[in-house]
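Before the break, one more example. Copy the sequence into your notebook; we will annotate it together after we see the structure.
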Amino acid sequence: MPPKNKVPSSALRAGALATGPATDKPEYRVEALAKGLRILSLFDEQRPSWRVTDLASAAGLPMPTVYRVVQTLAAEGYLDHLPNGDYRPGVRTLTLGTAALRSLDLVGLATPRLQQLGESTGETVNLAVLNGDRVLYLIRMRNSDLVTANIQVGSTLPAVTTSIGKLLLAHLDEADLRSRVTEESFASQHGPNAKVSLDELSDEFEQIRQQGWAMQDEELAYGLRSVAGPVTGPDGRVVAGVNLAVQARDWSTQRIVRELRPVLLDTCSAISALLAGGPA
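Here is what the structure looks like once it is written out:
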């Protein structure tokens, strides 16, 4: 059978993908489609971009075949051609991945708790996972007029400038962290208080691990603050993050820690308990 497109490994740890009945009848197999899926399956968090020659070698397919498949995928929006000649997954691939992610147990179990959190605080609630050096939003409940109003389910933002991103990065081992986060991770548009290097974030990561939560203070955008807490899977590993995003003009960092952090962490604990199969 053709390989399935990959979704972020951190998301897979949180739940199983919903799949339909499979068929093993060879007459229904479309070889050209199978080759395209085989090529798409090579893109992952460890290697998000490829050259055509490398794709041909890794897929075990002739170069002319891979070239035609890649050109077709690019024309349909499933691959983007980068200036350096590499290809990476395009917007339509993200759409497919988002549809798969929304079928995870994590989203279904978390949604009612996040709705309660949004109603009780009146602020915007997000749930996201780590995807390379970015955070991928699986749930967004917008309850206030925020600077980043264009964020929606399926959007990604630089992990180094977001509260959820910093929380999730802090729980990676050093080798994984260094392989994901590069100088380019800090090149995106950001707010006035954003850190500019991984070394500058190292002390904050240690603090995040010790205190169990993370804050973003106008690092993503001017006028925006957020506080994030961890969601853990059945094995106790951090698989996702939840945050409350607020307007800086209304919420000081002290008030966020005093009023929002406790209810946020309670919600994260409840979702983690549900994922572990116990009472929330």
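The chain is about 40% helix and 15% strand. Confidence is low (pLDDT under 50) at residues 1-24. Try to locate both features in your own notes.
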